Structures
1.
Amino acid sequence: MNTQQSPPSSNPVKLKPLKIGDVNIGFPVVQAALSGYSDWPMRVIARRLGAPYTICEVMLDEFLVKLKERKRTSHFLHISDEEHPVGGQLMGAEPEQFAAGAVKLAAAGFDVIDINFGCPVKKVLGRCRGGFHLGQPETALEVIQQTRDNVPAAIPVTVKMRRGVDDTQESRDNFFKILDGAYAIGVDAVTVHGRTVVQRYVGPSRWEFLKEVKQHIGDRILLGSGDLFTAQDCLDMIAQTGVDGVTVARGAIGNPWIFSQARALADGQPLPDPPSLFEQKEILLEHYSLAEGLYGADRVGKLMRKFGIKYAVLHPDFNGVRSAFVKVKNMEQWKAALDTFYAEDLPGCHPDGKMHKASGSGNS
């Protein structure tokens, strides 16, 4: 279990710049892949607010292989110049098809290909995808091998894992077999989430396991994940475990300011005030505009509701703002909610990291 959050230091934190293969990331606090969330608009907002690297929402290999160039599905592979470097995450069951999907991600322009062996959702596990692979190391390593063999050599391949299917000795042995085998095959980095697949999001992320893994692999690149809901959490994980970087997942939904806040803390500055309501309003409008340009005016309203609910956490009237965003159908209603609840430049709120950890709810 990770220790309590430590107070910000007045001294700069010496963080080693993150590099994945030949891709220079820089600041080692990045945005994770988030199913249903980390689309192009969310990634761009995160980049503009300090994230040096983001990963797209996980895509199925079968879907990618069959994907045709159509306007309605073009958003899946949409990348803009300003968001490089950007990673494409893939999930699947069968090695050859997985590799074919990875090739399609590389051709679309993603700078890194990330293999998902961490998703704990029942539907995914039932189809032999995601975290299911942690229980079958031979297949997992074949997926990695086929992907590495087929993706252009200049594009790094990374793997996302949980600490195992469960806490049995067999699961632990399988984890390290996949981990060591992945590096031997030539992956450039591995991300480890400190919970098991069985845990899903219940209970604490076991940060001490990340420390053990980092000591085991030495100089090879390891990123940590799990229970990163504040900027201080991000620096604490690096300091306590020795990982080379961290991937912020749920903590970045509705709070893209977490990246600039982490940069400030790393520079020895005090934690910046949460964004004021006018600052939030500007980003909320920008996010909706980007999404409308990508999805179209008819589709975007319903898609943006889930983001509005998350942004509402930073508002002093969370319940009122949440209720307004739940009903949004178009830009006019989005602006009406902003005019009602963001009309005065009041102080915003920092998210309650302890509440997130206690709830155990959320996405990958």
2.
Amino acid sequence: MAYCNVSNAEIYYEEVGEGIPILLIHGFAPDHRLMSGCMEPVFTERNGFRRIYIDLPGMGLTKNYNEISSSDEMLNAVLEFIEAVLQNQKFLIAGE
């Protein structure tokens, strides 16, 4: 459990495992638990993956997102998160 500060939010995220990073993004309204609930069973017999579950701004435990008022600003927050947490690494992405 951690927070990543980006320009317009403090994005909450959880990491599970080690290896190839996979950024898992939930859809509108739920939070990171939607993706972890459906994806973690996939990894019970698969090692070598670092799963990163985020709460999008306005959902879950992400804080201080009041300046985000459009989908472009939401995308910018996610891109800043990727830049900060994955730092030029190759990664996979999955979303709902």
3.
Amino acid sequence: MEKIRSEFPVIRKGIYANTAVYGPMYDSLLDWRQEHDLDFLLHGSAMRERSLKILSNTRSTVGEFFNCKQENVALVSNFSTGLNLLLEGLQPKTRVLLLENDYPSVNWSFENRDFDISYLKMDIDIEERIQETIRANTIEVLALSMVQWLDGFLMDTDFFKELKKAHPNIIIMADGTQFCGTRTFDFANSGIDVLGASAYKWLLAGYGNGFMLFSNAVQERFAVRSIGFNAANGDLSKKDSIRFAKKMEPGHLSCLNFGSLKFSLDFMSNIGMDKITAHNKSLSIKAKQEFAALGLLEQGILKRKGHSTIFNIKGDAAVFKTLLENDVLCAQRGNGIRVSFHFYNTQDEIDEIVRIVKTVR
């Protein structure tokens, strides 16, 4: 991974433990973006055909990366926008199950509309309690984050397949912003009906790009009302025959932003998502062991079998200040300090964070 680490100038300044806030820029992507803008500078509107090809290729690459049919891939500027567009097509009074303290863009999008909403508190046995709640109530939509933004709580991905098998009519909607790019994921065989993500975090694609993936079942349950000339690919005759996913793309899209998404997916594929998955798993195991030994983790995290690479460790403003002064880039979240690790991080960096924390305990 050392050669890959050299792609990221920011990690030369210290320990970058903040991908959960923003995925860093890397040299190869910067080169591609500069070349793209130079072409636009020199050729102007002659870039149009190339732009359309970039967007089409991005949909294909997203579909291949996550195993989703290309026609069921929508390119959106960010997860929040995509979710709000989609929910305009969901019937009022739909019975929805959410998680307490989930990412605001997930819960607020439902709460701001006329749905019948129930909530579950996050806990070690959340999957079991979701199943019990759905069995006891006529829940039509389950919506949650794959990884919780505050503490890195990771949902059991096999759970969704089991849930869908037991309740084939339920629509499962997931925010993958803190998940996609951290490990391999097979959408078509996941049991999830809608997976959306902003790509500026773990997919390293910068701001202004994201995607929504849809199962075939979604088209029967949502009547998406958004429309625009771009959705019809600039064809006046196609107004009444726009496919479902394209309705999520009513206006023109940035080929720079979405080209960056394609470039980053190719970049990670060339590294090997199996390698990234294995490396991130080892970081997660190492961090959990070390932080647990210092008593820095909540019991609900300790008792879970699996976890993401995001951790919220116990620490006050003094601990946070000490980490920053020692060039550890992290964030205060909730009542603790959130650190997050990706494939360019090392186990030695986790040891260094532990050493620093010990100096102020």
4.
Amino acid sequence: MNVLRIGLFTECYRPIQNGIVASIDALASALRALGHEVICVTPRVPGYRERADGVLRVHSLPLPTRTKYRLTFPLFQNDRILRALKGTSIVHTHSPFVTGWMGARYAKRMRVPLVFTYHTQLEEYAHYVPFERGATRKAATRLTRAYANGADVVIVPTPAMEERLRDLGVRTRIAVVPSGIDVALFAGGRRSDDLRARLGVAPGVKMVLSVGRLAREKNIELALEAFARLNDRAAQLVVIGDGPHRAALERVAARLGVAERTTFAREFAREALPDAYKSADAFVFTSASETQGLVLVEALAANLPVVAVDTPQTRDVLAGAGTLVAPEAGALAAGLRRSLAANGSRAGTLGVAERYDGSALGDRVLEVYASLLGAVN
């Protein structure tokens, strides 16, 4: 294949840390390693200085909610963006919002294929919009359907999400390609007594780990309720991540009587996460709003036993390598109790994680691109 020039358009990017950003970085890295050119078009963030080449920051506006996310403001930037995108072979968007529609407009203008990766079940985020919940969910569904049907191909990370989009009325071609991570990075973490101590985990105490943005849709309350039912003074819950729901979760921990046995560790730099996974004894995952759940793959790569709420997409990712339970505190507590009693049995999880290695998945995305470019040529 000839060298491609790929424009990635995303609303969500650094300095934000989450699964979408990690997956976009993994894709860009894999494509560049294969010899292709990548430019990422994303909102400018006041006070943030870009540390990498291949990123085009465009003017942006803050959202009218308590969030770090921003919306691009593409007016009066056409010439600058077009110069940066000159020679682009394909446009690959990662959001159906303003940046995604901007990418779609430039794909049409440059007469190149449009690929859309479906990262987010928007209807599960209706609580962020100050309107009636049902109407907001319907609007989110219509937005997803309209945007996806305007793409040449939609990439989804799990078969469950292909079924979900079909149920929403998406009729365009769908390709299942998981979001990837650097599996070797997370497999190479080291168990650290010093790190455990900094996280409030005393010697001889089991560490239950949760990683992710602290937001209502992540359902961390369920993890706290299950941990309270675990009723094990020889266990410490460590929650890595930050977000708008942190203060509320701290109040829940206090109400449940587990505040002293719960550490809210805020965000970790990505390069520090492998040691955190390796230093834990079990991983708890309670979100039902994910399209994949990249932290599940990170935990698997670290050979960390996973206890997760059972959803179709989580079932797809774990492929039998974790413990799936009903979305109830008692069931989750029982799953954690069994996992901790197994005393760190971790066999087989790395093999599952290797299916999500970013470099191999880069090849699969290129196959999608090639199928479109062949149709165009």
